């Protein structure tokens, strides 16, 4: 629970996903965002231990949103920005990995507060490192190992937007 002002509205888990099944979920989310680019004002956090698949999920989502070329893990840069076009609408996507943030104040010192508050899609690994500075989270995605090649994903929806995305993922199966 990252934001006391936003209680959990709903949660859903998908079990035993191989990477292809995880990619398919990311692709379904991308399709839902494409259908109405205003949906892309969404802040998603990604939780799970090292190697859980947070970056892998994000890469599949970015690819499905039209990002070409190499998708770096933003471990050192903290934030990697992308510009995508959904329909005819340009959307800024920020992929953050805050693992190396040792104190939430570095979030402010690094000048990340303003760009991360701007409209667009935010995908944030290791959000715990920013403490409460992160602001409202629409949904928190928790990835856990089932075994070497399978994960389970739990989607926690905290806002109407995070809930709408979850419903879209559930209903498009
Ligand atoms: N079902 C699966 N879903 C996701 N990744 C999988 C799966 N099976 C195997 N993998 C592999 O597990 C690794 C996940 O690494 P990834 O970098 O995505 O983890 P991460 O959660 O971002 O870790 P970190 O906290 O270090 O950033 C990748 O090498 C990926 O190929
Ligand atoms: Mg990662």
UniProtKB/TrEMBL annotation:
It holds the Pfam family TsaE. InterPro entries: P-loop_NTPase, T6A_TsaE. One of its GO terms (biological process) is tRNA threonylcarbamoyladenosine modification. Its main location: cytoplasm. GO terms for cellular component: cytoplasm. GO terms for molecular function: ATP binding; metal ion binding. Keywords: ATP-binding, Cytoplasm, Magnesium, Metal-binding, Nucleotide-binding, tRNA processing. SUPFAM superfamilies: P-loop containing nucleoside triphosphate hydrolases (SSF52540). It is found in: Cytoplasm. Belongs to the TsaE family. PANTHER family: TRNA THREONYLCARBAMOYLADENOSINE BIOSYNTHESIS PROTEIN TSAE. This is tRNA threonylcarbamoyladenosine biosynthesis protein TsaE. The gene is tsaE.
